[in-house]
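User: two proteins, same treatment. go.

Assistant:
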Amino acid sequence: MRIVIMAVGSRGDVAPYTGLGVRLQEAGHQVTLATHGLFEELVRSRGLGFHPLPLDTQEEMTSRLAASGTSSPLKVTLAVNKVVAEHAGPMAQAMLAAAREADVVLLTPAGWIGAHVAEGLGLPSMGVYLQPMTPTREFPPCTVTTRSLGGWGNRKAATALRGLGQQPFRKVVDELRTELGLPVMKPDAWLAQVEAARWPICYGYSPVVVPQPADWPEWNHTVGYWWPAPDPDFKPAPELVDFLAAGPPPVYIGFGSMPVVDREALSWLVVTALRRSGLRAVVNTGWAGLETAGDNVLTVSEVPHDWLFPQVAAVVHHAGAGTAAAGLRAGVPAVPVPFMVDQPFWAQRLQGLGVAPEVIPFRRLSADRLAGALTEAAGRPDYRRRAADVAARIAREDGAAGVLRVLEQLPRG
């Protein structure tokens, strides 16, 4: 089959689908990843087809979110949605062009317009999600809060959020459905139709981390992680190899695709925390542009997590779904510093698994607090023992195989 995966978002929202795509190709399918031009090299270097989608996520999301701040998860979620909505027209047309070359379409959460495209073209489709999006009584919507609203409230809030998130797209979606010869529908009616059709979703995280809620429908599947495909040309820089060998395992500090208003202040905070903890560190510049210096600090750009994380004592990160998963896979303790959207949810899960001493929301981050958490995470062996146990359980899972099983059950046109 010709499979198109529609992946919208930052690098962490795209990279796992390279691994899924490679596994699908190994099973005999032809896979194209439709995503932003920023990630074309990432996709093509893994042997996958590439189709461009509009929106420079690094430029637009970083500048917009840095300007709006990250104090309210709901505010940030709506801001991200607004950025995508502003490009919804070109995005819909790019998805339509990609889907015309497909036999089946796989959709990430931010790529949900592709479901209208698939419906209009008569193509089977399914969700391949990295975050729990189906409403449940067991926890609130993961993109806006970690505080339970009670069983009824949790489910009701998640249901309302799905409809609310579609409102900025209504004009574009109505025009798209008209173009495809489909009836125009209100968001809630369309979502009810999707639910009635038993539209399948595979969730690409471990049930060890988030057990499947008992009230989810049977066509939702928590299958386990699918991991980013390794870079076939990766060779670690000699200075990184030498640094790792020159002393005890360092800690890793990086905030991935997160925007910051004052990178100099954050860089000073990180260096100060490291000095107070006495730990060595590998610091990833990331989209924040961290700048660090010192005998016990090495600053790097992109280094594959699956290569680096097993060699460190602990990882400090923004608790994005992909980075949190990489730390769990490596069996290392974590210090989660969530900024926004679903990151507080994953940070809470890491603490609940006993692999993180505390969650430090970015707005409450200080040098003293980071130094204390680093010292505890890297110095207490019980965190590493629990992390190793989680890693061993995750290693027995095969999320991509779960997607293949569901894919083979899709109706054919």
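Protein 2:
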Amino acid sequence: MDLATVGYVACAAVIFLLAIRVPISFAIGGVAVTAIFVVFAFRTGTFMPERAFWTTLSLAFSSSFDLVHSYDLSMIPLFIALGHIAYKAGITTEIYEAARVWLSRLPGGVAIASIAGCGGFSAISGSSIACASTMGRICTPEMMRLNYDPRLATASVAAGGTLGSLIPPSVLFIIYGIFTESSISQLFLAGFLPGVISMLGYTLVVVMWVKRSPEIAPRPDEIVPFRQRMIVGLRCWPAVLLFLTVIGGIYGGFFTATEAAAISLMFATILGIARGLIKVRDIIPLLRETMATTGAIFFIAACAKIFVALIALTGLSNSLVGLLDNAEISVWFFILCVCLIYLVLGMFLDPVGIMVLTLPLMIPMVESYGLNLIWFGVVIVKLLEIGLITPPVGLNVFVLASVLEDKVEIGKIFSGLWRFLGIDIVVLAILILVPAISLYLPMSMN
């Protein structure tokens, strides 16, 4: 059997297993190991399993070992732990409180503050799911107490939570950088302006929605004095310092992204202990949560790396590039196809799973068109961000509903999200048409 054919059959098998709800790590890992075994067993033309067994194990273990021992991958547990520690230390709550006090008199001000709080949390944690979960506990009950329409109260947090995908540090950018061998520091910087534009877009949605239907967001009667607003605003200095450490340190060339993560985690831990909000005994449970999340991500990535070895072994990526050359597909049609593929996959799979499943096949085709991998990474992460709030399986929506203990129906949350999805498509189009938005900061990096 032709090696490329084995690759195509393996991809079809993965898609079938995912369709019947097999976890993505087992699907891609199991299929990859089986296909590699088949390739080596038939290498001489006759079936010789005894020759393929140890070769398959060696290739599978070496591929996953190299990934797990990657220096860049150490950023993931550091940033995930930082998110947990920052929440326990009250840093993320202070971001939301400051935004709420300063913006509460605006139309839909508390919803806008929730989006700003999600942006601030994203600049610390790097995880969209963690952002939606944490800010859902803080923001949504407050809006419900103020008689906000449940659709606005939930949709603004679900959409705002997706900012964790773009605003650095982002776990998705780390995984993308490792699989494409791109600079993670440049990816972090490339995601900053698109993340800010997305946040402004969500704010615009809230303002226009409330202007059209004022009853969905009553303005609070309380007027906060300027002095109190200044005090609350100054309490955000830890969050500002953490953000400057990550972005300013990377942009100025003072730290690598991994060093920035370690320094930020150490600072947040010391601050939490000094404030009395974190006891030494609290650190173990927080690290246990970090290990559980990190372990799941690492296992998916390790299985994906074995799948990458299969693709290299069968020459599948070269076959796909050859098909593109023969079909003479234009670059814009290719980008449109990429967008459609990721939008459809985003309806059913989690972002990490989509990324590790598609990147090994997608990147050789991207390189064949001469597209910039940093810019393409921003486009991919934006597409994955959209998938987090796209029905029927928008992860942020289900996480938020779980946090609220089903006090708001999932259907009602989705009904408030279509406006945010609309602005996401607009922002995506802008990022595709104007690559300079994504590339300005990384290209000016020292």
